[in-house]
Amino acid sequence: MTREDDATLTLQQRIDIARDKGSDLLISLHHNALPDGVNPFGEFGAGTYYYQPHSRDLAREIQREVGLELKLPDEGVFYNNLALVRLTAMPTVLLEAAYVMLPEQEMLMQQEDYPDRLAQAVTVGIQQFLDKRFPNR
Questions:
Q1: CA dist., res. 63 & res. 75, Å (int)
Q2: What percent of the chain has pLDDT over 90?
């Protein structure tokens, strides 16, 4: 965890914290929004981003598990030149778990068990990634 309150951290500070703590993985959790002019009635749901090739399988595993758990449309796994996922040595992904501005997804996020369900899905995705990467551990 890089923070437990509403403090603001730069992207570089988040990366520095993960590196300084010796983290093996960096998972950045977000909730998405639609830009102006986009039809809000499309198929919007969860999407996961990576940059480094060694992060792609982690992104796939997390994306699959979040989709299974939250039952949202699968936007997919995307290669993207985002600063947070680009500037790390450890496998790093950025998850956009749901859209805060879509009423049914906002209602999902307000459910008491939502944080635990999201955390469990990400945890299972990480475990799947590690089991495949290190099968004899």
A1: 9
A2: 80
